[in-house]
Amino acid sequence: MQKKILDWFDLNKRCLPWRDQRTPYRVWISEIMLQQTRVETVIPYYQRWMTQFPDIRSLASADEQTVLKAWEGLGYYSRARSIYKTAGIILHEMNGVFPAERKTIEKLPGIGRYTAGAIASIAFGQPAAALDGNIRRVYSRIGDVALPARSTEGEKLLWRMAEDWLDRDRPGDYNEALMDLGALICTPLNPLCESCPVMSVCLAYRNQTVSQRPVLAAIKPIPHFMVTAAVIRRTGADPTAHYLLAQRPDKGLLANLWEFPGGKVEDGETLEECLRREIREELGAQAVIQAPFGKYKHAYTHFRVTLSAFLCELDREPQPLAAQAIQWVPVSALDQFPMGKIDRQIALRIQSL
DNA sequence: AAAACGTGGAG
DNA sequence: TCTCCAAGTTT
Prior knowledge:
Blueprint: H1 2-12, H2 24-34, H3 39-52, H4 56-60, H5 64-71, H6 78-93, H7 102-106, H8 113-124, H9 133-142, H10 152-164, H11 171-184, H12 203-207, E1 224-232, E2 242-247, E3 258-259, E4 262-264, H13 271-283, E5 287-299, E6 304-314, E7 325-330, H14 341-351
Parallel strand pairs: 1-6
Antiparallel strand pairs: 1-4, 2-3, 2-7, 5-6
Helix pairs in contact: 1-11, 2-3, 2-8, 8-11, 9-11
This protein binds a DNA duplex (11 and 11 nucleotides) through helix 2, helix 3, helix 6, helix 8 and helix 9.
């Protein structure tokens, strides 16, 4: 099976930017960017990143805000903050040398079992197994695994398969081969079994259970929240327009990113009441609402929001009561502040005025 | 063990 | 419009 998969890989592997010059740094950055993220999404981010931060030293000497800005739009922003932390650790505690041992790699921030195995095998040629979404699907089908793939028992079995069946001579290529096989042939929907190099050993194919493998967990209902946000224009003699941004807490959703202040609508509250309450609580000021500034729908990982924005002014200078920091920002500088998708859309609308 | 954590694309 | 999910990790 390993030979069939590697022979297929040698003929069909994808040409991807991180597959040139396999330095540990390039493999590491690509692996983090690819966590839960499509290849096509990652490619332009990866190319910009390597221009902006060509090595660990340039990354470690940047500001976290600059790093988050480079990550803006990729999502799961703790990944960017972990990368930044890891760059500092490698530079200051490891003499600037990326560790080669899987166990050591796995101790670094943002690197779990999969990523440690991928880096160890791909960048260092070590016989370390990797189990990602693609490989999990491929092995669930080859072994016709009836256990839910993400259950404790299922994970145990699948990691065991990944360890036992790893090609010891070409571990990095083998792990990548399984991922390419999962991405190109053994796809979630409509897999191309007739073109698969391991069709003859695939138990799910034999048992006609391919479409039922892997066994997925039940999906939970996703709540939907109504939220408001204030686009606050600074009043006063200054002829240049400035708008107020607040920096989110350093933990949780969109940590350390900037946003237009606001919050969830509570029961029995109108949108305007919600906004005035939030501004009072977060900024210690009275909001004078002037006009609606658009509705924005957005789906996060585990909830959805409909955000109603309003153009406002304040009756006094705001205080950072809830945010880490607040800042009056000229329209031309809104670009430089890392934001999540929905706040970026609001910022773009301001810039189009 | 289960929940939190983003976004964009396909069907 | 809506669902599902795509190279997982952390708490």
